[in-house]
Write a structure and sequence with these properties.
Blueprint (H helix, E strand, L loop, with lengths): L10 E12 L2 E8 L5 E3 L3 E5 L4 E4 L4 E4 L5 H15 L6 E4 L1 H9 L8
Parallel strand pairs: 1-6
Antiparallel strand pairs: 1-2, 1-7, 2-3, 4-5, 5-6
């Protein structure tokens, strides 16, 4: 399944989500509430944990539902690594508190 362009799907709700570092970028991993399919986003541009929203470099807004789920994120990551022949050593889970602090610093906004 391919990802729709941002203009066709500007917002997505995700559950069983977590933050990860993949290929040097912090990304969001989770399952879409609409079809329960796993999703790994493009690099994160902004995080608002008060509103529970994540905006990616592509401009899509993800609405976080429920709590972070490292086990579910690991399942999505494993499939991603297999599909793209990416060594598992190139990915790491990132704590939500760390991401919140990182994006709270104005100088750190952008493609991290």
């Amino acid at each position: 399944m391919s990802v729709k362009p941002v203009h066709e799907e500007p917002e997505v709700e995700v559950f069983a989500w977590h933050f990860v570092r993949v290929e040097g970028f912090i990304r969001l991993v989770g399952y879409r509430t609409s079809d329960r399919m796993g999703r790994i986003t493009s690099g994160i541009a902004d995080v608002d944990m008060t509103a529970r929203e994540v905006t990616t470099a592509s401009g899509r807004v993800y609405h976080l539902r429920g709590d972070p789920d490292a086990v579910a994120a690991a399942r999505v990551l494993r499939r991603h690594c297999e599909k793209w022949a990416l060594p598992i050593t190139e990915v790491a889970l990132v704590d939500a508190d760390e991401v919140t602090l990182l994006y709270a610093q104005p100088s750190m906004h952008g493609f991290n």
